[in-house]
Amino acid sequence: MARAKRHHYVPQFHQRFFGVGIEVERIWVYDKTTDEINLRAIKNTAVIGNYYTLPQSDGPDDTLERAFAKIEGDAAPVIDALCAADGPNFVVDVASRYVLARYLGLLHGRVPATRLASQQIAEHLASITMDTRLANREGFLKEAREIGWTGTDEELDARRIQMLERMRSGELVIKAPEQVSLNMVALGLEAVAPLIAAMGWWLLKRSTFPHYIVGDDPVTVWPSNTHSKHLGVGFGTPDAEISVPLDPETLLVMGHNVPDGYLFREEELPSVPWWYPPWPYHYRTWARAHRFVFGASRADLQAIQFMMTPKERGLSAGLQVVGGPEEWRGYAPKSGEAA
After folding, report:
1. Interatomic CA distance for residues 255 and 242, integer angstroms
2. pTM of the entire structure?
3. How far is CA 281 from CA 30, 44, 61, 233, 250, in A?
4. pLDDT tens column, 18-30
5. Is 84 helix (H, G, I), strand (E, B) or coil?
6. In 3-state terms, what secondary structure has residue 19?
7. Are 218 and 18 in contact (CB under 8 A)?
8. What is the spatial distance between Cα 337 and Cα 231, in angstroms, rounded to a whole number?
9. DSSP string covering 270-333, please?
10. pLDDT digits over 210-253, tens only?
11. Do 289 and 277 form a contact (C-beta atoms < 8 A)?
12. Crossing angle for the helix pair 153-169 and 112-135, nearest 10 degrees?
C-alpha cells in the first residue's frame, strides 16, 4: 500500500462543506499573515507533508493518518445529518454522538495551533526544569558525578555556571522532538472525546449573509465573561462554550450547562444583531484561527474582515505564561512562533 505523504489537518471532507464550484473542490482562504483572500484547491489547503508520519527503524509510518481517515469517514454522515436538521429539535443517538465526539476531539488535537502549544509546553517545562537543576550547585555536582563526568568540583561548577548563563541568555535552547506534539492528538481522542460526548449540544442555523466561516483551529473553546483571563480554559471548564462550524449554515455549540437537542435560527433570536458579522461566533472562529480562515465565498470572509481592525484580523490564540521567577521569563514561548 502506497504511503500517504500529504496530510490534511482540516480534513478535505470538512472543507468541502464550505467548498465552491461544481465539484466543491475549491475553497476561499483568508491568510492572517498577508491579510489577503484567495481561492484555493481543497487538496492543497490545510495540508502539511508527513504531518502525522512516525519515524520507525524500518522507515516512515503513516499508520496515524490511515487511522484518522477511518474516524473522519465515520463522522461524515453524522455531520451530514446535523446539517440537514430543520428543528426545532434534533436527536443524535448514542453511537453517533460518540463517533462525532471522537472526530471533534481529533480535529482539535491535530491542528497546528494545538500541536504547537503542546510543543511549547514541553519545551518550557524542560527549560525551567533544567534551569532549576543547574541553579542547584550541590545537586548538579552529584548528578554530574553519577553520570560519569570527571574533573574537579571547581571545573564542573564552571561548566554549570556557563550552561546556566547560556540558557538564560537564550544562546542555549531546549527543543522537544516534533513527535511530542502527537501526544496531544491521542489526548484528543482519549480524554477530550468523552467530555464532548457528555456535553449538551445545540445547533445554530444561519441562512442569511454573512454565513459561518471555519478556521484552521475549527473547534473553539471560549471562556465565559466572568472567567479569569489568567486561567486557562479547556473542555473540562464548567462554563466553557465549545463551537465548531459544520457548514456555512450550521454551527454546533456545546457546553456543560446548555440544553441538549435544540435548534435555534440565529436571525430569530431576540436581541441579537444578526446583521453584525462578528456576533459572536464569527469573531471567535476568526480569533482562534492560527493562520488561515476558510469560507464558502469571498464575501463571507470580507464581511468579517472589514468589521475588524487590522490588529484584530491578525490576532491568533497562543500559549501565554503568567508569573514565575524573572529568570524563567526568557523560556516563555515567543509571540509569532508558527508551526
Report:
1. 6
2. 0.88
3. 17, 26, 38, 17, 11
4. 999 888 999 999 9
5. helix
6. coil
7. no
8. 22
9. TT--TTSTTTTHHHHHHHH-SSEEEESSHHHHHHHHHTS-HHHHH---------S-GGGGGGSP
10. 999 999 999 999 988 787 776 778 899 999 999 999 999 999 99
11. no
12. 150
